[in-house]
Amino acid sequence: MARDRHAKGPEAEEEADGSSGSPPGLPSRLWRSIFRTPLTPRTERERKRVVLNHLVLHMRPVRVPERTIPFRHTFGLGGMSATLVGLLILTGVLLMFVYEPSPDRAYGSIEALRRNVRFGGLVRNVHHWSANLLVFVAFLHLLRTFFTGAFHGARQFNWVIGVLLLIVVLAANFTGYLLPWDQLSFWAITIVTGMLGYLPVIGEGVIRLARGGTEIGSATLINFYTFHTTVIPVTIVGLMAFHFWRVRKAGGVVIPREPADDPADKPATVLFVPSLLMREFVTGLLLVAAVMVLAVALDAGLGAPANPGMSPNPAKAPWYFLGLQELLLHFHPTWAVVILPGLALLGLLAIPYLRYDPPMEGAWFVSETGRSLAVAGALAAVALTPLWVLLDEYVIDWSGWLGGLPPGLSEGLVPAVVALGIIWAVIRLAGRQYGGNRQETLQAAFAFLATALVILTAVGVWFRGEGMALGWPWTP
Ligand code: HEM
Ligand code: HEM
Fold this sequence. Notes:
Blueprint: H1 2-8, H2 10-17, H3 28-35, H4 44-59, E1 63-65, H5 71-74, H6 77-96, H7 106-116, H8 120-147, H9 156-178, H10 183-195, H11 203-211, H12 218-249, E2 269-271, H13 272-297, H14 322-328, H15 333-350, H16 368-394, H17 398-401, H18 407-434, H19 438-462
Antiparallel strand pairs: 1-2
Helix pairs in contact: 1-2, 6-8, 6-12, 6-13, 7-8, 8-9, 8-13, 9-12, 14-15, 14-19, 15-18, 16-18, 16-19, 18-19
The structure holds protoporphyrin IX containing FE (HEM) (2 copies).
């Protein structure tokens, strides 16, 4: 059989073993010389190539649907998240050679790393920027999978794994934040662990568990360090393996379909090597280059050493929790920290399991109606969220107006019902304007909430000053 192929020449052999076919528009000789996988390797070089290609093809399929190849379908965001996790593990292990997890030495060890270790500052900066970018990129990836309807059928549970991954990524960032042991990190962790106290009944116990005592001290640092460098990375890698396996089981990423397509038609495919592998490789390289540029240009910084006796003003949570801290300024703490985020998380987990009529997947916003509804939801949030923040700061006085009610109702239930009522009214209005089935309507609500979260975070980062009062970012 193999001899027959050789007899017909290398082209026939490539066709038979499925290794020919360069991506359209690319010079085929170059790709073939790199990626050709001969069935019967004749030289040592060919043998090595076979081993490498087969290793790659054990993890990924031989052929992938052509329509999923263009960059704008996934923007490579899942692969970028994975690349950032890789960078974090690499730089994290290097940091462990120098970092000392004790309140007396942690700050000094990072100072020494920056001053005395060759490329120490750069390694730390790469860790810092990869960690922050990961939150951002994973959030964009969540938006991409949601707005291409990639959560139906075989992908249902992978959405849930994704949500778990996002939670663990936030936990990784949060536990890492304390490690430099400067004023910023010490007080940010004080604020966020303090928020846990609003959990009903178990609040105090949970704070004590997270801090390893009542105050932030050496037990907290050891707790955070152990979670950060062992439990969390192992969990992330395990979840990622599960996540990738589910993508594979679902037949790859969701396929964009045109309304006119016959669902029974088999999609045209191209070879994974090199069509997709090359694109993934280039995206990964560009991302690593971008992180390096950030790490060289912008230092992660190190404030004054932690001083448990003197809180900075304002004392802010890490940026990815500032939306939550902003909610605390507008709602009763039990609502801001427990009920509203709890409802949001449950809603997020429930998305794949709701009933859709019919489930729609593949294309961005799934339809023109879906696009219009999502844009309407996002624009409404751009207008209404800052308005709500301003009115609540300067005009609304829930507890004064509803003096007779307990604070859980006047500052919790009532504003929450009003806010949810406004969102419901916006969605109804948009629905009347554009129509739309259940999934398209859900996209409008999702776009509203995601945009509101981004705006609340931006308000927390740039527009909250001393005493958490509203102000311009440029006024001291
Ligand atoms: C998803 C994975 C990870 C995330 C999101 C993450 C995040 C962070 C963050 C935000 C910091 C504070 C950096 C700063 O000073 O601004 C940090 C520090 C640190 N991380 Fe990680 N990390 C991850 C994985 C790891 C791993 C796998 C290790 C080790 C095996 C590690 C070891 C360290 C060490 C030793 C520090 C203290 C040095 C420093 O603060 O600069 N990290 N991490
Ligand atoms: C560390 C974080 C994450 C990593 C490394 C990761 C990685 C990936 C990769 C590589 C893919 C396939 C290619 C792509 O879609 O770009 C994928 C697909 C997917 N991810 Fe993630 N992901 C992460 C977080 C999330 C989150 C937060 C969600 C949403 C809640 C999510 C939901 C999904 C879904 C539903 C798919 C299937 C998409 C489809 O079939 O089109 N992932 N992920």
